């Protein structure tokens, strides 16, 4: 059974861990993650790929569960030096182990390898059980339109904690980007395509904005099942509400489901998994042509994540 | 009093610390170090400048005195990751604090700044008391000719500990390089030019090989005083003997002095400071037109280094 998951970073990583756990019971299960790269950037001459790394560390069991991101047992010796030299963003601290990953990635990229091949090489260090493919090998950068100009997404997200009102999001160079090798086939040949409970605007939205990917999702013979990142009108993690507000979508499981839309009506969803507390939204979603089901959505631990994956696959 | 020192890394750093110490007693002393960059290289997409860094760390009081090189209190978290990813040279470990310096340098270079401006910016973090100028802003790389081919200098030096017989040294691109801004003026306008007790072949030899520098040393109105890196037929540190053998020069204070040669005979030296144990070489050096003096050369601590600097300046 071929399972393809469109995913952002931290939330997608937990979901993928659940999918992997659940798939242990499925004969010949193959899991592919198509990962957002819109948050990637060059910082102090290092190529940083936050979502790819969050997923890699989480699936490798190397993430810091307490903090929720980055490597466990991390230190910040290099960043301390960069601050002392006045180089880089003082509010954006990279861990030493994390810098090891960025340096390895940067060196392979500079040798001429595309990001997808670099990702294969870097992830081969661990037995992840999931094939990670960046949505594109091209450098697509999400910027945030704010009053008076534009901020890099990380500046808006990490420095300003999304408190500067966003007027919109721009994915620079996205119109000239192409899906990375394997992305379209992973969607077309899948038995099921899952949309992880990731940020609908800057994570899933960026993936779908790469020319060809939305059409592949629309055309696949696989069932497309999404999982809501919104529970009871609030984001499970991150600041997706600020992103949704900017594009005029209400922060609710129903509104996000309708924003993605039914495949039968030109959207991307066959089915939409929402939390029990949002059960009242089922009729409106069903009326729009989206099969909706209310289940416990909180991924408190690997077991509940696996149950959520099972629910998504059952839908 | 303007003092200009041509210098390699570790030995030159100690000597420069002595010059700075001694110069505290000289009104309006200005010390400039013209530093070898032939050992510089790109490694895992980082620009590494071993000699500039050895001098900077030593003058900043940040070097590891026990080990003799690198930063005190160093750790190797990033290099551990690079090894796990199979990236870089497993036998060439970069410390975390050191990587902070390399990343800062790399980022400034990639922004378009020449190495000399980058060095000004990086060294401004500390009150070094010495102006460091790379001998050239161009990428001149020392390679070692060995039986059957060529090795990068660091591969020969660090991996093979100079045990593979060197047939010669090649400074790639040196013929097209130019002295960094300030280098020729620092030599021409100096009151005294000192040749640090550094490797005569790959450190001082590389500096002198940059078109224009040897001629500037030959033409300066300053007195040019060298300090022998050889004591009693042995190198004080490093493996300069292997380098000298490769170019057919005996490992002795006398042979190195004669290799540099008297300015009056087309060489670069007015005077040559050798160790007491080598006093027997004085007549031969004097006969060749080089004022020679035998003094204690061992730089055991800052005080003896300062005394050596005083002796060199007195000569």
From TrEMBL, chains A, B:
Q: What's the Enzyme Commission number for this chain?
A: 2.7.8.28
Task: Write out the GO MF terms.
Answer: LPPG:FO 2-phospho-L-lactate transferase activity; magnesium ion binding
Record-linked Gene3D superfamilies? CofD-like domain, CofD-like domains
Q: Which domain of life is it from?
A: Bacteria
Q: Does the keyword Ribonucleoprotein apply?
A: no
Query: What is this enzyme's class at the first EC digit?
Result: transferase
**Is Transferase set as a keyword in this record?**
yes
Which keywords has UniProt assigned to this entry? Answer: Magnesium, Transferase
SUPFAM superfamilies in alphabetical order: CofD-like
**Pfam families for the chain:** CofD (PF01933)
Query: Entry's InterPro entries?
Result: CofD (IPR002882), CofD-like_dom_sf (IPR038136), FbiA/CofD (IPR010115)
NCBIfam families with a match to the protein in the record: F420_cofD
Identify this protein by name.
Answer: LPPG:FO 2-phospho-L-lactate transferase
Q: Which organism is it from?
A: Conyzicola lurida
The upper taxonomy is:
Bacteria, Bacillati, Actinomycetota, Actinomycetes, Micrococcales
């Amino acid at each position: 059974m071929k399972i393809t998951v469109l995913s952002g970073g931290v939330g997608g990583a937990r979901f993928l861990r659940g999918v992997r756990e659940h798939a242990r019971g499925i004969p010949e299960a193959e899991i592919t993650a198509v990962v957002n790269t819109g948050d990637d950037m060059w910082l102090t001459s290092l190529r940083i790929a936050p979502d790819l790394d969050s997923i890699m560390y989480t699936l490798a069991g190397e993430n810091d569960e307490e903090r929720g991101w980055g490597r466990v047992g991390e230190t910040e010796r290099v960043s301390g030096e960069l601050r002392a030299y006045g180089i880089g963003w003082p509010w954006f601290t990279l861990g030493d182990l994390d810098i090891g990953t960025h340096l390895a990635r940067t060196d392979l990229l500079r040798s001429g390898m595309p990001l997808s091949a670099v990702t294969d090489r870097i992830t081969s260090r661990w037995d992840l059980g999931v094939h990670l493919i960046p949505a594109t090998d091209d450098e697509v950068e999400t910027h945030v339109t704010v009053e008076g100009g534009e901020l890099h997404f990380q500046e808006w997200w990490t420095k300003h904690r999304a408190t500067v009102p966003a007027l919109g999001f721009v994915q620079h160079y996205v119109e000239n980007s192409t899906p990375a090798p394997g992305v379209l086939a992973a969607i077309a040949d899948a038995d099921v395509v899952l949309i992880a409970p990731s940020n609908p605007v800057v994570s899933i939205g960026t993936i779908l904005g790469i020319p060809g990917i939305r059409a592949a999702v629309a055309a696949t013979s696989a069932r497309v099942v999404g999982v809501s990142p919104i529970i009871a009108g609030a984001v499970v993690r991150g600041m997706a509400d600020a992103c949704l507000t900017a594009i005029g979508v209400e922060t609710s499981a129903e509104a996000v489901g309708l924003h993605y839309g039914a495949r039968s009506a030109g959207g991307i969803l066959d089915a939409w998994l929402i939390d029990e507390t949002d059960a009242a939204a089922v009729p409106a979603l069903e009326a729009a042509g989206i099969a909706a089901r209310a289940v416990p959505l909180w991924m408190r631990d690997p077991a509940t994540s696996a149950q959520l994956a099972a629910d998504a696959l059952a839908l």
